Amino acid sequence: MMPSAAVQESFDVYSVRKHFPILNREVKGKPLVYFDNAASSQKPQVVIDALVNYYTGFNANIHRGIHSLAEEATAAYEATRDAAAQYINSPSREQIIFTRGTTEGINLVAQTWGRQNVKKGDEIIISTMEHHSNIVPWYILAQEKDAVLKVIPVSETGELIFEEYEKLLSDKTKIVAIGHASNSLGTINPVKKIIQKAHAAGAVVLVDGAQSSVHLDINVQDLDCDFFVFSSHKMYGPTGVGVLYGKYNLLETMPVYQGGGEMIKEVEFGRIIYNDLPYKYEAGTPNIADTVALKAAIDFVSQIGKENIRKHESELLAYATNQLQQVPGLKIYGRAKDKVSLVSFVVEKVHPQDLGILLDNRGVAVRTGHHCTQPLMDFFCIPGTTRASFAMYNTIEEIDILVDGLQRAIKKLA
Amino acid sequence: MSTSNGHKRIEEIEQEIVEEFSLFDTWDDKYEYIIDLGKKLPPLESQFKKDENKVRGCQSTVWLVAEYKNGRIYYKAESDAVIVKGLISMLIRVLSGQKPDEIVETKLDFLSEIGMMKHLAQTRSNGLLAMVRQMKNYALAFKLKHESV
């Protein structure tokens, strides 16, 4: 079990690995090497225990029941809200809305704030490196409102061209929706600067934190973002739950998203009074179990220490970059100075899918394809990449297995 | 068991492939064989490499065309990924030159018998199932067009 002390003083990856039971399994007869963390990370035992404890100990519907189980379930669910608020330094717990994940968070903002505030001819700014989840909701809104989607271009190194962004801003800009870190390149975007410029132009900013919340310290007050969205399952928590943070006055004045139970105060036919924040946006019975277990993930990350994790992941990134660069014909996409811990690459004359299949045969899980960022792949004129993304439990030895597997695969395929 | 006009039946070809794969002990060897098949697959003429011939549901690009001649269907296909080309090569070997009815009906058990279903087909990303479906769709379409009474 985890020691109950605060942040661990030293980081030992082999002790960390012991918390993740899945890392003991084999794939295709080989020890699993899991490098698809940017898609979804594995779960520590404490998170799995939290799920089991909820169902074996205090499963009940929350907020309305008067009995003990309902009270315990409500307390656990609301404790995660406090933990999430603290995790991103939200000024209040009411500004933490639970969603199904990052995608739902973005859709919620597009369909509520967006529908209320974006009018014909208004402009929405996104970037070339956005995940489809941060493109499609805005595309739908722009179609509906006859608004214009403007796209910040990226450079050859995979970084946003800031001057071009500044040129796109105008009094027509209503919202800037930007990824904190790119899932296919790893680039960490200068969101604080982006937010300052947007605010100066009178626009609000949504930050897609799907790839950053697990790696970086998130401080929504320091960033001064208007909305911040992230997913539990990419930060060692369960699937099916995410967080939408918003500035209080925005959340307060936005129209409701989905209607149902929990989000109302009083219902008479012809007259409905909606509930206060945060419940106004949480219609229906939420994903109680996974939300409860998300707290275990947040606590776990805090105990291991984000600084420890970041240091370890930086070492993995530096080592992997260096080793991969030495593979003949291999080109790394995303060479920004500031990157989260992932490497995306293409090998000359070798299709990523073939690499993915042969690496899987050696027990190595990587992601191949367009990573839900087709516009970015089009920009680089490639069908897709092979991506190895690292987490706190990955090791240098595993990177050696990847590189060795790659070299064998290339020999066969080329 | 060949039919009178020299065509091997689907099950017969499947059995040949199963026997060939039984020679391999490891998946390394099986993949090497599939890759080899892929490299040997004749390229598809460029006029066929257009959007309407693309098979949807593949992570790699697969072009598939079919032709109906004398009651039988002939397939040609290519991909930009070599393992997929190897799979295509096997599917063409089994299905090309067969009657529409037989193509529609076949369960392609050889894919399970050589372990391919278990090894590859769990995710849609490799496109194996999408290719099989598309080949069967062609067979069904030709059957309805040429053989409906």
Structural notes for this entry:
The complex is a heterodimer of chains A (about 425) and B (about 150). Chain A folds into two domains: about 15-35 and about 305-414, Aspartate Aminotransferase, domain 1 (Alpha-Beta Complex); about 50-300, Aspartate Aminotransferase, domain 2 (3-Layer(aba) Sandwich). Chain A is of the alpha/beta class and about 425 residues long. Chain A is built from 14 helices and 17 strands. Chain B is mostly helical. Chain B has a single domain (about 10-145), classed as Sufe protein. Chain: A. Chain B has seven helices and two strands; from the N terminus they run ααββααααα. Chain B has a two-stranded antiparallel ribbon with strand order 1-2. The two termini of chain B are about 30 Å apart. Chains A and B meet through helix 12 of A and helix 2 and helix 3 of B.
Entry keywords:
heterodimer; A: 414 residues; alpha/beta; Aspartate Aminotransferase, domain 1; Aspartate Aminotransferase, domain 2; 2 domains; seven-stranded mixed β-sheet; four-stranded antiparallel β-sheet; 14 helices; 39% helix; 17% strand; disordered N terminus; B: 149 residues; mainly alpha; Sufe protein. Chain: A; two-stranded antiparallel sheet; 2 strands
Question: How would you summarize the topology of this molecule?
Answer:
The complex is a heterodimer of chains A (414) and B (149).
Chain A lengths: L12 H5 L8 E2 L2 E2 L1 E2 L10 H13 L10 H20 L8 E4 L2 H16 L5 E5 L8 H10 L2 E5 L9 H7 L4 E7 L11 H10 L3 E5 L11 H4 L3 E5 L10 E5 L1 H6 L10 E5 L2 E4 L13 H17 L1 H20 L4 E4 L8 E6 L4 H9 L3 E2 L1 E3 L4 H7 L4 E5 L6 H18 L1
Helix pairs in contact in A: 2-10, 3-10, 4-5, 11-14, 12-14
Chain B lengths: L9 H12 L5 H14 L21 E8 L2 E8 L2 H14 L4 H6 L4 H4 L2 H5 L7 H20 L2
Antiparallel strand pairs in B: 1-2
